[in-house]
Amino acid sequence: MAQSLSPPLLERCPTGIEGLDNILGGGFPRGSTVLLTGSCGTGKTTLGLEYLVRGALVGERCLFLSVTEASEKIIENLSTFEFFDKKILEDKRLIFIDVPILYEKLGLSKQELTPEDIDLFITAIVHLAASLKVQRLVLDSVTSVCFRIRHEEKIRDFILKLGKSLSDINCTTILVSEIGPQADRYSLYGVEEAIADGVILLGNVQREGDLLRTLQCIKIRGATHSRAQYVIEITPIGILLAPFLKGGRKG
Question: Is 216 within a domain?
C-alpha cells in the first residue's frame, strides 16, 4: 500500500473561542507566533485576553505583557466577563506584567533601543516565560515596542528572535499590532506580518447604520484555515463569530 505524502498534523493550541477554533481547524499550531492586527476598537485586546483566560481555565500557564495600559485596569475590565474566574490570578495560571516596569528594571531608559537593549529585552521575556513555564503569551502591543526600535531591519530581527526563542520553549504567542482604519498592510512597519507564523485581521465595517466588528484569518503556517470574513460580537460570555453575508445582514 502506498504511503500518504500528507504532512503530519501539528499539535494545536485551542484558543477556546469556539468559532475561531473552527476556522483554524482546532487552534493555533503549538509554538507559533501570531500577529493579531486591527485598528482602534476592533477587539484585539479582548480576543488576546480571552485566549489567555481560556487557556488558564484548562490548566495552562499564561502571561499577558501590557505595554501601554496598567494591568489593574485590564483586570478590572476583564472581570466583567462571565468566563473569567479570579482564581486563575490567585494561583498564577494567568500573570500580568507591565512592560514599562520591566523596562525600568532592565535599565532601558533611552527612547531608541540599541541592538544590545533589544537582546536584553528578548532575554528577559523568554527567561520569564521559561521560569514561569508559560504556554501562552500575549504582547499588547508589539507596535508600541517597535516605536522604540524604529528601524525595519532591527524590528525584523526583534520579531524573529522573540518568536523563535518562545517557540523553542513551546510557547504559543500572540503579538497585538495596531494599524489605522484604512491601512493597506497588516502592521505599522510592514515587516511584522511577513515574519509571523500567522496573521488575524480585525476590522470595522459599516452596515445599515451599524459599525460591525469583523475577523479574517489571513494566514496560518502549518494549518488549513478559512479565509472568509466573519462578524464578531463581544458578549459577556465571550467572543462570538458569525459568517459575514455580503448581500444582507449577518446570519
Answer: no
Residue 126 and residue 165: Cα distance in Å, rounded? 7
Alpha carbons 138 and 87: distance in angstroms, whole number? 20
Cell of 71: 494591568
Question: pLDDT (tens digit, 9 = 90+) per residue, 45-77?
Answer: 999 999 999 999 999 999 999 999 999 999 999
106 is a domain residue: yes
Using alpha carbons, select from 161, 137, 158 the residue that is nearest to residue 146. Answer: 158
Domain containing residue 16: 12-201
Residue 159: which CATH number?
3.40.50.300
209 C-beta neighbours (distance < 10 Å), count: 5
Write out pLDDT tens, residues 223-232.
788 889 999 9
Structural domain total, the chain: 1
Instruction: Kindly report the pTM of this predicted structure.
Output: 0.91
